[in-house]
Amino acid sequence: MPVDADGTTDAETEGALPINELFYSLQGEGRLAGVPTVFVRTSGCNLRCWFCDSYHTSWEPTHDWQDVDEIVAAVDSYDQAEHVVLTGGEPLLHEASVDLLNRLGDAGYHTTVETNGTIFRDAHVDLASISPKLQSSTPTPEKDPTGEGKWAERHDQRRVDLDALAALVDAYESQLKFVVTDADDLPEIDRLVERVRDAAATTVHDSDVLLMPEGATREALDETRNAVAELAMDRGYRYTPRLHVDLWNDAPGT
Ligand SMILES: C[S@@+](CC[C@H](N)C(=O)[O-])C[C@H]1O[C@@H](n2cnc3c(N)ncnc32)[C@H](O)[C@@H]1O
Ligand SMILES: Nc1nc2[nH]cc(C(=O)O)c2c(=O)[nH]1
Ligand code: SF4
Ligand SMILES: [Mg+2]
């Protein structure tokens, strides 16, 4: 069954998830970088960042439908792993993500959800790794990988939902992880962090705000990582590497 253009799924398939890939690696991003982790990547997204490093979950979604039972068994087959990351695409689009997270939490796994922060769901989440999307992520006709620019307006309208961001920050241990393309992104990050602080009851420390260089390949990161590290130092935010890209470049299943 296909994921439709918005990435929403047919009600019939509740209890199953569209899985693009499931693999064992090291967490490459954020405060748990370096931790051995099983990744479950769902397909389908409500946004279309021009730089999306998971093209086959957003711009051109591909997947197998798998029952939550099957996914849990596949996670269990990696004996060494105590951590699971649920990512996508946008994993919180899918109702069945709640069941999967609750099952993994009950089984004793530490669960991280990688989310664009536009959707709140109540589930077992040990770390909400929230990556709100900046204006520089918008797929303008010049930047759209399909060259059409059809998604620019929808992307721009949907990319920030303050209520969802505040609900995620208030419900879960969280980090705000911004993809930085250049220094022009910083004023927008500062403003958005302040808006989240105003909307949420929980204190958001500067050390919970992470700057991540844009780049899906080593070559692309060579152009961004040092400048982003300097911006993090200037501003007092945290820098996060993209360890998996440094180690394995853009190989699938890493
Ligand atoms: C593919 S997304 C899936 C989860 C969710 N849709 C989101 O955007 O947070 C996983 C992470 O990769 C980041 N990301 C995607 N493409 C990137 C790129 N070209 N450079 C740096 N980070 C990127 C996202 O911002 C997010 O933190
Ligand atoms: N190793 C590795 N770490 C990651 N952290 C977040 C990822 C993601 O795509 O959400 C990711 C990923 O794709 N690979
Ligand atoms: S929100 Fe995440 S999955 Fe969706 S297009 Fe952007 S980076 Fe890709
Ligand atoms: Mg990734």
Automatic annotation (TrEMBL):
Co-factor remark: Binds 1 S-adenosyl-L-methionine per subunit.
Biased composition (Basic and acidic residues): 141-154
Pfam families referenced in this protein's UniProt entry, alphabetically: Radical_SAM
Annotated residues for binding of Mg(2+): S54
Amino-acid positions noted as binding substrate in the UniProt annotation, renumbered to this chain: L26, Q27, G28, R41, T87
Pathway the protein takes part in: Purine metabolism; 7-cyano-7-deazaguanine biosynthesis
Chain residues that bind [4Fe-4S] cluster: C45, C49, C52
Enzyme Commission number(s): 4.3.99.3
Catalysis: reaction(s): 6-carboxy-5,6,7,8-tetrahydropterin + H(+) = 7-carboxy-7-carbaguanine + NH4(+)
Classification via InterPro entries: 7-CO-7-deazaguanine_synth-like, Aldolase_TIM, rSAM, rSAM_sf
Segments forming domain Radical SAM core: 32-250
Superkingdom of the organism of origin: Archaea
Keywords: 4Fe-4S, Iron, Iron-sulfur, Lyase, Magnesium, Metal-binding, S-adenosyl-L-methionine
Binding-site list for S-adenosyl-L-methionine: F51, C52, D53, G89, S131, P132, K133
Requisite cofactors: S-adenosyl-L-methionine; Mg(2+); [4Fe-4S] cluster
Positions of the UniProt region annotated as Disordered: 131-154
Molecular function in Gene Ontology: 4 iron, 4 sulfur cluster binding; carbon-nitrogen lyase activity; magnesium ion binding; S-adenosyl-L-methionine binding
Keyword Zinc-finger: no
Subunit structure: Homodimer.
Stored PANTHER family: 7-CARBOXY-7-DEAZAGUANINE SYNTHASE
Described function: Catalyzes the complex heterocyclic radical-mediated conversion of 6-carboxy-5,6,7,8-tetrahydropterin (CPH4) to 7-carboxy-7-deazaguanine (CDG), a step common to the biosynthetic pathways of all 7-deazapurine-containing compounds.
Family: Belongs to the radical SAM superfamily. 7-carboxy-7-deazaguanine synthase family.
Name the UniProt record assigns to this protein: 7-carboxy-7-deazaguanine synthase
Name of the encoding gene: queE
